[in-house]
Amino acid sequence: MQGVxxxxxxxxxxxxxxxxxxxxxxxxxxxxxxxxxxxxVTATSWVVADLDSGAVVGACGAHEYATPASVQKxxxxxxxxxxxxxxxxxxxxxxxxxxxxxxxxxxxxxGGQYTVETLWLGLLLxxxxxxxxxxxxxxxxxxxxxxxxxxxxxxxxxxxxxxxxAVTPSGLDAPGQFTTAYDLALIARACFADAxxxxxxxxxxxxxxxxxxxxxxxxxxxNQNSLxxxxxxxxxxxxxxxxxxxxxxxxxxxxxxxxxxxxxLGAEHAPQxxxxxxxxxxxxxxxxxxxxxxxxLVDPAEFVVAPSPxxxxxxxxxxxxxxxxxxAPPAIALGAAAACVVLATAxxxxxxxx
Length: 354
Known about the structure:
Layout: E1 29-32, E2 45-50, E3 55-60, H1 73-80, E4 89-91, E5 113-115, H2 116-126, H3 129-139, H4 144-159, H5 181-192, H6 195-201, E6 205-208, E7 219-222, H7 227-230, E8 234-242, E9 246-255, E10 258-267, H8 274-287, E11 295-296, H9 319-327, E12 331-334, H10 340-353
Antiparallel strand pairs: 1-3, 1-12, 2-3, 2-10, 3-11, 4-5, 6-7, 8-9, 9-10
């Protein structure tokens, strides 16, 4: 992985790990005391939460810094979906095509013309880095894609995702770019609250139109998120991968009127793919009672974010958040600096011996 920028976590901010409740502050596993152990996964951190109530059903390393890869495109969606006209026609320029050679693209062509809706489909179905650049440029106004990234960071703070900092709109690795499994759950919750996002995320295939002036034929793209084909009640989500980030994943599903979201970071593809690890954690989450909780996804209205020179300087939790920490149900909270799979496997062995 020569040349890959290593993650350098920012200085710890005192309030960052308290967001959502102090039971989530551990670097290890946090589950209700009555819950069985979750399935072993290779992800270094994960969160399972209720999209509607905001309850965090379980987590491992919820506030541990990691790099997002293409799940960062969800922050782009949460920021720009409501601002851009889906029927607007956009011409792709040279700057839009500046992304890592060989990385995922929607197959756009410089000088080609596409609707914004086509760009969203290219972004969410096949993780198009070209589409990400165009959408960030549109949303950034006069400041272009750089302005779009600034808007993404402002949106992260509005959502309470104080440990998230974007440098690229696509999630391609860059120094100073990071997020957490908890922050991703906040961002995903905002995305799934948008009807257009829900429709795009469940779209199985779409057409990238021909560009006659560029002598480019049209072609079909397929949704890369296998959850929507293979998991009953799937609502969609987003896959991600880079050499630095490894596999990252966000997925959501509905069962018996209950909607859960799973976020995971730093996973390997064996013995299970990222979406399969997400599906296993969703199964575990749905098996817990609706009242199960070790914390919660905060409401953006709870925070007043003061201007700060630091990209991650969270406002302190409100009085409501402090109350939630005091009244949250007991949980298993075990510190673990390594991957969650190590912790879960060790606990299983210990239980079998006892």
